[in-house]
Amino acid sequence: MNPILGKVGRKVLGQFRFAGAFALLCKQILIESLKPPFYFSLLIEQIYFIGIQSFFLVAVTALATGSVMALQFGFGLEKFGGTLYVPKIVSLTIAREMGPVFTSLLVAGRIGSGIASEVASMKVTQQIDAMRALGTSPIKRIVIPRVLASLIALPILTLFADYIGLFGAMSICSSEFGIPSDFFITKITETLRIYDLLNGMTKTLVFAFFISVTACWKGLNTEGGTQGVGRSTTWVVVTSSIFIMISDFFLSKLFIATLFPES
Known about the structure:
By secondary structure, this protein is an all-alpha fold. It has helices at residues 3-32, 40-50, 55-78, 86-124, 127-133, 138-176, 181-191, 194-220, 225-259.
């Protein structure tokens, strides 16, 4: 048998195994999230870890992104006398794409890797086996708080990133292109609709669910000691980032088809 074909076949088979295991874990999460006991303290702890501790990183990235976008669009449109359109273009781009995608990629890098390494460490040190022996469900105590916290924290982080990014763009427009701040705010309020914000928030819900469930699944299935923990962490970050970029295209296509059905 051709070794290349064999390697490709194993990769494809591995993807199908992952899809099946992912679906089974989603089923377990749905079933066990409706049954007591409910670990609210663990949920609050994870919201703090995922949300509050990520604010500074998200703020710096959003500020830089908004500023760079304003510079690029501003100097590009200045050649055609279209500088006054910068607020509209930047606000739509941040609300629909840059805010959700960049924030989710940051969360995949910081939180996805953190969850994977934490759960994988518990797995290789047999803490999860001890938890099962004591009659406690690892799904309820480990997975569900992290998934729910991600679903709560990531949309809030995205909304926060949108405002910080627009503030950065407004500062650049005012200092570099002489666009008054009140004019910038007026154009934003004229351009953005609730649909645009919901577009980005809906994307982050999908991204958050996949990041958290993938990290938990990989952590629960880690083998190979400390080296396995490192491999699991890398795998989660890469897989989550690829999923975010691919699913963003299809979600954008879906939202555009919903908004403009005639196209």
